[in-house]
Design the sequence.
């Protein structure tokens, strides 16, 4: 799939030069787009990004006919620690990626507290891997 994407990026039609003095009034400016296409085709590290996105366990479930993607983090805690479920919902537009920096902070159990969060982070319908 990545090879197909790179092939498509490298073998596109020639970009139409933008009108002089025009920014983005008529869509994406081809002078700005060309370096991005080159970066994605030649320099972007897809394997590194894939590993980053897969650092948390991903699941899918069917709710009322829709396949809903979600990340589910269950804390490993002793029996005397209360586990509190916490649902994290992203906005529109958005994705579960917005929570990647806060997940470790919320899913860790701190000594001074006798509770830990169990995190459920769904991709809203129409976003990410959800229907």
Sequence:
């Amino acid at each position: 799939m990545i090879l197909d994407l790179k092939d498509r990026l490298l073998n596109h039609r020639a970009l139409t030069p933008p009108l002089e003095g025009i920014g983005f009034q008529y869509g994406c400016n081809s002078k700005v787009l060309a370096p991005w296409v080159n970066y994605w085709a030649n320099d972007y590290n897809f394997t590194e990004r894939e590993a980053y996105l897969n650092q948390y366990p991903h699941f899918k479930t069917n709710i009322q006919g829709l396949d809903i993607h979600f990340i589910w983090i269950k804390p490993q805690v002793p029996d005397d620690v209360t586990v509190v479920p916490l649902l994290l919902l992203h906005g529109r537009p958005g994705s579960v990626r917005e929570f990647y920096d806060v997940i470790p902070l919320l899913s860790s159990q701190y000594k001074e507290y006798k509770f830990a969060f169990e995190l459920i982070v769904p991709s809203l319908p129409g976003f990410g891997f959800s229907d």
Notes: Residues 66 and 131 are 6 Å apart (CA to CA). Residues 2-44 form one domain. The longest strand covers residues 66-73. The chain has two domains: 2-44, 56-122.
